[in-house]
Design brief:
Structural class: alpha+beta
Largest sheet: 12 strands, mixed
Helix content: 40-55%
Shape: globular
Number of helices: 18
Number of strands: 14
């Protein structure tokens, strides 16, 4: 009996991933004494302790040399437009995308400004994401609930995040409308409550779709789930218009006549952009360059293409961004916005926080190391609208944000070129600026990355 117990215990350790003869390195009394002896209370550590006891480390580690050297002038700057505000949602990718299309509509309509309705697209984004979730549940019906793919789906059924290609497919299917036709309300600009309701209902339907059911039963459940989702969205956001009547003032403040449009007609006639001419370019150092990639489930519409991107060296990414701006074309991009930045002041610089002086030790994590340790991911999308060139080389970049005019520097970030080098991961460029070598990458068969890849649609700040 004793030997059987020993065997069972040994089996448990092996199944748990621990070999029985593996020696674990603990913190014993001698090591603890050594660790304690390595630290000394002195004037510096006491001052730091006193400061950290009452303030956040970011506040007291701001590098004043960087702050004093700020310069907000640019040698090349596109015309500034009124700043948009995504408020408490993760719609940055949508705001940035619509802000890139905005100048095209302004020129077409011969008006001073226009803003598109983000709520209109948000409604259909949530509806399509719900359908994608249900399709994912159907595709994984045979897997146990503990499977990683199923866990990924169930953790966040309808996230706010997205990317450029998703916005393109939503617009191609549903069109766009002016902001006044379906303006933001509290629910669309504070999405956490509707997300919770949608997630709870969709998880209920996920369980209903599992098990031994006929195809007609599965389709009936899927359709009913989408009806419930539509109802939740409608009472929160309102019902999107199938057509609308609208007029506006032109550049001379002359009021135009009323005209009736469908959302697709409005997009095709007023924006008229060939969305297929824009390409997503990433620079991920731990993936091979000049290769094509896609990410499982990273799409906005189930029956339309998902994200496909070419991975290129960072310097090529930067040069294409510069080339676009020099042609007066704004550039949609994704970055790790929370790193080395101050949103209140609108500053982005890798030397912004002097942790070395604060803690008395070096902090060194290269761009490559950040990707290899999952420390870097595109968390926010914005728009490049300017660049400062010195001897033909960029020193800083002007960034239009979507957190309202009271954030950053009147709605704009000032990004040091060295920040671009560390924290920008993706740009979207029109094909007229992209060399043939890179365009040819898009003829390759893409390598499929798993949905838990850091480059999945994490753009939601």
């Amino acid at each position: 009996m004793k030997s059987l117990t020993t065997i069972l215990i040994l089996g448990i350790f092996i199944l748990s991933g621990f070999a029985a003869d593996e020696k674990k390195q603990g913190i014993d009394a001698d090591l603890l004494a050594e660790l304690s002896a390595s630290f000394t209370w002195d004037a510096h550590t006491r001052a730091i302790h006193n400061a950290l006891s009452t303030q956040d480390s970011r506040a007291i580690s701001v590098n004043q040399r960087v702050m004093r050297s700020r310069d907000t002038h640019y040698s090349l700057e596109l015309e500034r437009r009124p700043i948009t505000n995504q408020e408490s949602t993760g719609r940055c990718w949508m705001y940035a995308g619509l802000n890139v299309l905005r100048p095209l509509a302004i020129k077409k309509l011969n008006t001073k400004d226009i803003q598109f309705s983000q709520t209109y697209l948000f409604f259909y984004d949530k509806l399509e994401k719900a359908n994608l979730f249900l399709q994912g549940i159907l595709d994984t019906r045979g897997l146990p609930l503990s499977d990683r793919k199923l866990e990924f789906l169930l953790r966040n059924p309808v996230p706010d995040g997205g990317q450029w290609v998703g916005m393109v497919e939503l617009i191609r299917k549903y069109g766009v409308v002016p902001y006044e036709i379906m303006p933001d309300n509290y629910s669309s600009s504070h999405s956490s409550s509707v997300n919770r309701a949608l997630a709870q209902k969709l998880r209920e339907y996920a369980l209903a779709l599992r098990g031994d059911k006929s195809e007609p039963d599965l389709e009936r459940i899927r359709v009913q789930a989408l009806k419930d989702v539509y109802r939740i969205l409608a009472v929160n956001f309102g019902v999107p218009p199938s057509e609308f009547t609208w007029r506006y003032k032109d550049k001379d403040d002359k009021l135009t006549a009323f005209k009736t449009w469908t959302p697709l007609d409005f997009y095709q006639q007023v924006v008229g952009a060939a969305l297929d001419d824009y390409y997503a370019l990433y620079s991920i150092p731990n993936r091979p360059f000049h290769r094509l990639f896609t990410i499982l489930w990273d799409q906005a519409v189930a029956d339309r293409p998902g994200l496909v991107f070419a991975n290129i060296p960072l310097e090529e990414l930067k040069q294409l961004t510069l080339k676009s701006l020099e042609a007066r074309a704004p550039v949609w991009f994704g970055c790790d916005v929370g790193k080395d930045s101050l949103s209140k002041e609108g500053v982005m610089a890798p030397e912004l926080f002097d942790l070395e002086s604060l803690y008395g030790m070096p902090f060194r994590l290269s761009r490559d190391d950040a990707f290899n340790t999952w420390a870097s991911a595109p968390t926010h999308a914005m728009v490049f609208t300017g660049v400062d060139l010195v001897d033909q080389a960029p020193t800083k970049w002007l960034v239009e944000n979507s957190w309202g005019p009271d954030s950053c520097d009147k709605g704009y970030y000032h990004m040091a070129d060295s920040w671009f080098d560390r924290h920008v991961q993706v740009v979207v460029i029109h094909k007229r600026f992209i060399p043939e070598k890179i365009l040819n990458v898009f003829t390759q068969k893409p390598e499929i990355l798993p949905p838990w890849d850091p480059m999945y649609r994490a753009l939601m700040q």
